[in-house]
Write a structure and sequence with these properties.
Elements lengths: L2 H16 L1 H5 L6 H22 L6 H6 L1 H24 L2 H8 L2 H12 L9 H15 L1 H4 L4 H23 L5 H23 L9 H26 L4 H7 L2 H12 L7 H26 L2
Helix pairs in contact: 1-12, 1-14, 3-5, 3-11, 3-12, 5-6, 5-10, 5-11, 6-10, 6-14, 7-8, 7-10, 8-15, 13-15
């Protein structure tokens, strides 16, 4: 098996994910509507991809994992709603970094939720990530900073944590079946919220927004998910975890380079603390596993 090729697939997917915020800011449509379209188009793409490879949907495995698939699908939809709203309330960099505090939250709640022993050496990583959030939020400057955006980003992170926990419970199912089901359910979850929030709102499509929404569904979701699961299924777990943190790095760079969103020295320190804490935490976990 060509691990270099699989690593390239995974890295490509992660980089694609990191550019999502860049395009969300360019769409003149409600963020929850964009998220709903992303899930629908992405699910259709993955199903068609399965058919092109002559892979049949395994409804038996879906039924066996139905409870956890439903919960994870709902949380995926909520994750997108909160994250896309955060993109609108604060910078793409801050929203993405807040969303990526999820691994630190998992470390803290794992002893209770997953019955896993708390690793004391990972606590400094969690503390560093918390300090990083304070720095990137801008709260130190005027007492408010971009608090609404930060809270939305953290809400997205909590949803992501629940997805991680659910995925630990899901067993013996094809990655593509899991992906399209979760994507489809995420759209179903967002639909009532969109209808209630945008009651009486008439969608006015422009060519630019239409193309971006289609691209987010086909390229950033369907295509990227296929690359992501292909690489994730063959690469070592530690490699997958660490390379995954390229996503917030790409998000921060896109925010600064293309959107000209300002981040002062304290914000950069916070970004380094969050990403560095996550990477160190994963390295500590890998070292422990290697010593067993």
């Amino acid at each position: 098996m060509n691990l270099a090729k699989e690593r390239l697939k995974y890295v490509t997917a992660v980089i694609i994910y990191g550019t999502i915020g860049l395009f969300i800011r360019s769409v003149s449509l409600p963020s929850e509507f964009v998220a709903m379209c992303r899930g629908t188009v992405g699910a259709i793409f993955i199903i068609l991809y399965q058919r092109s490879r002559n892979q049949k949907i395994d409804f038996s495995s879906i039924r066996k994992n139905l409870k956890w698939l439903i919960v994870s699908g709902i949380c995926l939809g909520l994750n997108w709603v909160f994250l896309f709203a955060a993109y609108m309330e604060t910078t793409v960099a801050v929203a993405s970094l807040c969303n990526y505090t999820a691994p630190m939250i998992v470390i803290i709640i794992a002893p209770v939720v997953l019955r896993e022993k708390l690793e004391l050496r990972k606590l400094p990583c969690a503390l560093a990530a918390f300090v990083g959030i304070i720095l990137v939020s801008g709260v130190r400057k005027n007492g408010t900073g971009s608090i609404p955006g930060v809270l939305l980003g953290l809400a997205a992170a909590v949803c992501f944590v629940i997805i991680v926990i659910c995925n630990r419970k899901i067993k013996d199912i094809c990655a593509y079946d899991k992906a399209w089901f979760q994507l489809a359910l995420s759209s179903v979850t967002i639909l009532p919220y969109f209808l209630i929030k945008n009651h009486g709102f008439s969608l006015e499509w422009d060519v630019k927004s239409l193309l971006i929404v289609l691209m987010l569904g086909i390229f950033h979701t369907g295509f990227a998910y296929c690359l992501y699961f292909s690489g994730m299924g063959t690469l070592p777990v530690q490699t997958v975890a660490i390379l995954g943190y390229l996503e917030p790095v790409v998000s921060v760079l896109c925010s600064v380079i293309f959107l000209r969103e300002y981040m002062d020295i304290f914000g950069w320190i916070g970004a380094v603390l969050i990403i560095g804490a996550a990477v160190v935490s994963e390295l500590l976990g890998g070292k422990k596993a290697a010593n067993r």
